[in-house]
C-alpha cells in the first residue's frame, strides 16, 4: 500500500508540476510523434457484468488535467453483448469522433487554436493529438477501425496501454501502429505519466458508472409512464405514499389526485394492468 500510495503521489506531482512540458516532450519522443502533443484524450469503460455500462474520456494538456472537458458516454447500443468491452469502445469512438468530424471536420488538420463549443477553453484544441486506450490489441483494432471508417486514421495517434503480467504497474505493454508491442523502463518518467493518465481515466469511469447505477437504483416505476412528469409524480406519491400503492389503485382513486384527469388515470392504470 505504501508503494502504491508513493507511486500515485509521484504521478500526481509529475502531472501537475512544471515538468508537464518535459513529460509531453518525452511522450512525443517515446512514441515517435511528429510534434509535442497539446491535447491528450484517455478512454476507459466501466460496468458490472455489462450493466449500467459507461465509457469515459478524460483530457490532459500542457497545464495538466482539463476537467471541464471530461465526458462520459452512457452505452446505448442494444446489440452489444453484456461485458463486450470491444463493442463498448467502438460505440464510444464512433460517437466521439463522428461528432468531432461533424463540428470541426475542416479544422481536424489544424489542431491548435480550435475551441469546441461544448468544451470551452480559450485556445485549447478540440482535436486530440493523441488518444490513449486502456486495452491491448483487441481494443486497438476496434479503435483503428472506427478512425479508418471516419477517414481520420492519419490525423490522430492511437496508443493502447495494456496491463502488465499479473496486472503489475510498471509492466504495461504499449501498442502503436507500425511497431511491435513494447514496454518502458520501470522508472521512466513517461511511464509514470501514462500511468497517472490511465488511473485518472479509470477513476472517472468508475465514478460515472457508480453515479449511473445509483440513479438506476432509485428510479421509480412512475418514471416509465408517458405523461407523468415530476409534478404529477409528486402528487401521486403524496396521495398514495408509494409507487407500489399507485400501481394497485383503482381508476376512481387515481382520478381523485390533483392534476390527474380521467385520460391520465387510464394511462396510469393501463401501465400497471396491461398484462
Offer a few descriptive terms.
44% helix, alpha/beta, 7 strands, seven-stranded mixed sheet
* Mean pLDDT level: 83
Total DSSP E strands: 7
Poorly predicted spans:
108-121
Number of contiguous helices: 9
**In terms of structural class, how would the helical and strand content be classed?**
alpha/beta
Tell me, what's the shape? elongated
> What is the N-to-C order of secondary-structure elements (H for helix, E for strand)?
HHEEEEHEHEEHHHHH
How much is the radius of gyration in Å? 24 Å
Rounded to the nearest angstrom, the distance between the terminal CA atoms is 55 Å
Fraction of residues in β-strands: 5-15%
Helix content: 40-55%
Main beta sheet strand tally, sense and closure: 7 strands, mixed
